[in-house]
Write a structure and sequence with these properties.
QueA-like, alpha/beta, 376 residues, Thrombin, subunit H
């Protein structure tokens, strides 16, 4: 079997101290590994990005905004429950900024104790509140019922119950917590540092982390140098961070995530291509949105769900270059980047980055893969 198909071929050893626990401050002071043609690379700082791009290039960024999706509640018995919302269960499968469905797919702990029909209360447990005569029962007005188990994710379908005058979106903004990844265990970051500066489409449960390095000033500098910017939306969910478990990776089934590639972005892409500019995706989620919108051969306006899984051998249709962070071993994200520059070269670059003490994962440093480095 081709080694690129083997899950074990995407493994590497990362020292724990290389996992970033807090982001660089300012954002654009993260380090940048520049990947060039002919096995060449350079080291820089993210704020130097304009030096590596050309006038006429187009940056495509994912404008999704992270939902405060981590909740802590209780069963009626007082047993603590942790909930991580993944995606709304909408009739038309189209999330909006105006309102949310009250029915969500979620990961829950402890899963074995949360069978269909179980009620989850948020705030103080019923036992705690009822045992305090002077306490308010206000916190007990929001609850959720477990409707079913989702086999694909081992999660639960939850139906939320709120007072008639309260929206789920507003309640989450007040009560929910930012869902930092589990490998960030000792962070003093502010919740705003886990949002891009251009995030405006609420609905993700993880940040499109390559975009965290941009500041308004850097975006302005790029614009002034003739490097245009366009936006797509992909609401990062379980499809992005779900681990690959199939030993033959091509049998892995990606969970669908909601994406939108608007007409304005498509038009900018076509103009850029027609004038010899290059399409630089900011993050693997922007890649999946763009390539998902081009499965008929060329990019078209798109709105809906995509389960596109990219790995070595993929035929690229839109993306020329990529800005990305350093990803977990055996992850679909590592496989996607391998599809752009080759698995062996990528793992060699990772070894060099570890030796040079780059910081890895969501709050870590970045890599710029220039178009000339892409496998053709």
């Amino acid at each position: 079997m081709n080694r690129d198909r083997l899950l074990a071929a995407y493994d590497y050893i990362l020292p724990t101290e290389r996992i970033a626990q807090t982001p660089a401050t300012p954002r654009d002071h993260a380090r940048l590994l520049i990947v060039k043609a002919n096995s060449q690379q350079a080291h820089g700082i993210f704020r130097d990005l304009p030096n590596w791009l050309r006038s006429g290039d187009l940056l495509v960024l994912n404008n999704t905004r992270v939902l405060p999706a981590r909740l802590h509640g209780y069963k009626a018995s007082g047993l603590p429950v942790e909930v991580l919302l993944l995606e709304p269960q909408l009739e038309n499968e189209k999330p909006t900024n105006d309102d949310f469905s009250h029915r969500w797919l979620a990961l829950v702990k402890p899963g074995r104790r949360l069978k269909p029909g179980t009620q989850i209360w948020f705030g103080q447990s019923p036992e705690q509140s009822l045992n305090k005569p002077d306490s308010s029962l206000e916190t007990l007005k929001v609850s959720a019922t477990v409707l079913a188990t989702d086999r694909a994710t081992s999660g639960r379908i939850l139906q939320f119950h709120l007072p008639p005058d309260q929206s789920l979106r507003d309640w989450l903004e007040t009560y929910g917590q930012m869902p930092l990844p589990p490998y960030i265990t000792n962070s003093d970051s502010d919740p705003a540092q886990y949002q891009t500066v251009y995030a405006d489409r609420l609905g993700a449960v993880a940040a499109p982390t390559a975009g965290l390095h941009f500041t308004p000033e850097l975006l302005q500098t790029l614009q002034e140098q003739g490097i245009q910017q366009a936006f797509v939306t992909l609401h990062v969910g379980v499809g992005t961070f779900r681990p690959v478990e199939a030993e033959d990776i091509i049998t892995h089934q990606m969970h669908s995530e909601w994406a939108e590639v608007p007409l304005a972005t498509v038009e900018l892409i076509r103009q850029t291509q027609a004038t010899g500019g290059r399409i630089i995706a900011v993050g693997t989620t922007a890649v999946r949105a763009l390539e998902g919108a081009a499965q008929m051969g060329k990019v078209e306006p798109f709105q809906g769900k995509t389960n596109l899984f990219i790995y070595p051998g993929y035929e690229w249709r839109v993306v020329d270059g990529l800005i990305t962070n350093f990803h977990l071993p055996k992850s679909s994200l590592l496989m996607l980047v391998s599809g752009l520059i080759g698995r062996s070269r990528l793992l060699d670059l990772y070894e060099q980055a570890i030796a040079a003490e780059y910081r890895f994962y969501s709050f870590g440093d970045a890599m710029l893969i220039l178009p000339e480095a892409r496998i053709r």
